Amino acid sequence: MSEEALDLIREVVAKSREALKIIREYTHKTPVEVSATFSRMTGGRVLLKYENLQKTGAFKVRGALYKVYRIKDKYEGVVAASAGNHAQGVAYAARIFGLKAIIVMPEGAPISKIEATKGYGAEVVLAGRVFDETYREAVRIAKERGYALIHAFDDVDVIAGQATIAYDLMEQVDEFDQVIVPIGGGGLIAGVSSVLKHYRPQTQIIGVEPSAAPKTLAALREGRPVEIQPRATIADGLLVKKIGEITFKIIRELVDGVYTVEEDEIAHAIYLLLERGKVLAEGAGAASLAGLLSGKVDTRGKTSVALISGGNIDLTHIYRIILRGLTREGRLARITGYLPDSPGQLKTVLDIIAKHRGNVIGIQHDRIDPALPAWHAKVTITFEAAGKARIEKILEELENAGYTFRLES
Ligand SMILES: Cc1ncc(COP(=O)(O)O)c(C=O)c1O
Predict the structure, then answer these.
(1) In this structure, are residues 382 and 361 in contact, taking their beta carbons and an 8 Å threshold?
(2) Paired residues of 178 in beta bridges
(3) pLDDT value for 232
(4) Low-confidence residues of the chain, pLDDT below 50?
(5) Pocket flag, ligand 1, residue 244 (CB < 6 Å)
(6) In this structure, which residue's CA is closest to atom 12 in ligand 1?
(7) Do residues 172 and 294 both lie within one domain?
(8) Pairing of strands 178-182, 204-210
(9) DSSP H or E segment with residue 104
(10) Is the minimum distance from the CB of 238 to ligand 1 under 6 angstroms?
(11) How far is CA 330 from the centre of its chain?
């Protein structure tokens, strides 16, 4: 290992001990629980650490608290650029230590995030359409006012703050083989790996990032942080163009494996956490579990801890995730077909659906579209279903009765 990396890791571990004292005072020691469902589904022993229940709804408040604590006597105020959990973490930390906070968010930031951040007493400035522009404005404001700019991940103090999750784990769980950590800019995984490899060196540290934003894999391949062109992802907290310089130096030495997860896998993990665990996670927060459920991270015969790192999901996203999850499990179906345009046809179709315990919740009936076959109506029926096998049966019986319907995805 290079001297430089070793020094960084030593600094993170030393600072994390001080950070723990401050962070414990102002945050929750969030619960860790064994999940019987996910253990069964993966064939290993799966524990979930619920940082979605942390103050401000995400672990980010840990790094923010320690950073603001360190600089509080030198500055009157702090500035951060973020539309996510860092914003709320910094706003909360500034209020605790009596500093002013200015949070710069991109112009399109969701109202819910703006309001939550203002709720912690921060001033919110909207600037820029893409994050780079937002960040530039934050740098400008910090300079103009003489405030400290708090980076979201590439800062040893922030990393040391995030590292405090590792102490919770060591106190709460007797033995674990691996920890699964989502990667945005890498602050969380750099912190957690520094402390765990120090105190429990046999622990495997596994990173997960969306395939839409694989900046860590790109950096590992190139041997240095490189800028990628990420796509939009449901795990918006992990949407970062380039891994941090400091975080990468640590990740390269201490992380045992990095895997990507697909959007569908993340959405399904959110759905399962909600449905089975009654737990609300945001995309970034569910990515670690998605990694386990996808089968990419090896779990057999191991105790794995997945960090559910945050729960701040926009409510407008949830119903779509639920509909998608229900459809995937065969509990909701949408079928489309063409019916001869004569009385009684629709009733016959609905009777077949009802016979198999389908509960209709919507029907679209179109007789006007000129592209329709002559004297036919196009019908789309949405219904609550009693499982995939029943849906198959309904389609089969409709076919036998002379109606061809297809299942919409
Ligand atoms: C909920 C959640 N999980 C994970 C991450 C990734 O953390 P890091 O940028 O330290 O890798 C973030 C970052 O914002 C987040 O909000």
Answers:
(1) yes
(2) 204, 304
(3) 92
(4) none
(5) no
(6) 237
(7) yes
(8) parallel
(9) strand 100-105
(10) yes
(11) 25
- For residue 186, how far is its CA from the centre of ligand 1 (angstroms)? 8
Which residue, chain included where needed, has tokens 């860790």? 32
Range of the domain at 114: 76-146
Beta-strand ranges (E) seen in 290-387 are: 303-308, 332-340, 359-366, 376-384
Among 146, 164, 195, the domain-final residue is 146
Residue 316 is predicted with a pLDDT of 85
Mutate to test the pocket of ligand 1, among 48, 59, 261 (most ligand atoms within 8 A of CB): 59
C-alpha to C-alpha distance for 105 and 114, rounded to whole angstroms: 8
Whether ligand 1 lies within 6 angstroms of the CB of 291 is answered as: no
Which mutation among 54, 66, 82, 85 tests ligand 1's pocket best, with the greatest number of atoms within 8 A of CB? 85
* Whole-number pLDDT of residue 1: 84
- The answer to whether the beta carbons of residues 243 and 219 sit under 8 Å apart is yes
297-312 burial, b for 16+ CB within 10 Å, e for fewer?
bbbeebbbbbbbbbbb
Active-site annotation, residues: 60, 309
Mutational pocket test of ligand 1: of 273, 309, 317, the residue with most ligand atoms within 8 Å of the beta carbon:
309
What ligand 1 atom has the least distance to the C-alpha of 85? 16
Residue 60: its pLDDT value, please?
98
| Domain match, 41 and 163 both | yes
| Domain termination residue (choose one: 146, 174, 199) | 146
Which residues face 126 on adjacent strands? 105
Which residue in this structure is represented by tokens 């089969």? 396
Give the residue, by CA position, lying nearest to ligand 1 atom 6: 184
How confident is the model at residue 372, as a pLDDT? 86
